[in-house]
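INTERNAL AUDIT FORM
Audit reference: QA-55
Scope: verify that the stored structure record matches its stored sequence.
Auditor: D.O.
Record contents follow.
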Amino acid sequence: MYYVVFGLLYLVSLLPFFILYGIADVFFVIIYYLTGYRKNVVMQNLRNAFPEKNDKELRSIARQFYRNFMDNWIETVKLLSISKASLRKRISGNFDIFHELHKKETGVQVNLGHFFNWEIMTLYTGISQPYTFLTVYLPQSSELMNKLLVRVRARWGNPQLPASDMARAILPWRGKKYLLALGGDQSPPNADTGYWLYFMNQPAVFLKGPEKFARILNIPVLMMTTTRKKRGHYYFDYFMLAEKPRELPDGELIRRYVAHVEENIRLQPSLYLWSHRRWKHQWNASFENFWVDSNPIPGKKESSLEVIKNSETQLKTKPAVGN
């Protein structure tokens, strides 16, 4: 069955982009206007994330999100056959930091978010910097889908490490020049096993793995900003999130990560994956020990002493004007 599906999708991938985007437009009409795929989830997420926007503005973001959602998958199909030269004509980015780190650092970690098109980002980053690009992936419930996605991501030699067995899968790469990519905006299976903090105006729980892994190895952690210039054209800008994560207090790396994810969302809201249940775990007071946000615990006011301490901390860390 896999080879039949792969063969059909490969033939589709040979079509020019303008035809593929025409197909994406048809599917957009079906999922947005006819079936309403996860429309309630998307709209509720947007209302919570952007309380300052009215319904008309939110519906506009939602429509563009669904267009980008379909483009994401049709572009992923195209990756089955696209050439490196063709990909480079459409994709660009700032990868200077990788070349600088490669001279002195063996391992580097990059914490990523679900911004369109993350599949293009994975394939393009693998050929645009000097490290071996190790991608950690969450195995799909469908074996067929799992094989197809691994085929796309590993097409030009990017090794794929299953999240379910990452600790063992990365062992052969210890001591070698590698770049480890981790998705940081996925919810842990249980609400009491992650870091809790505000994400787009609402308490959310994040996996501890990306931060703990970086602190154990004490390797530089990077992140990136994704921008979409126009249909099928993306720009990826990588930057340092933490050079020596072991020196940071517990939870600081995830705080920086969340802050930059929010920045990227506000830059182009329709690029984020609003259809997944990012806030499926509800906050309750029993998770207080897992709260790492600098803001007060939900439902709990700061004491006067805490207000003063937080104000002093912000003044100390605020950059000087002109820097």
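Auditor finding: record pair retrieved intact. Residues 2-300 form one domain.
Action required: none
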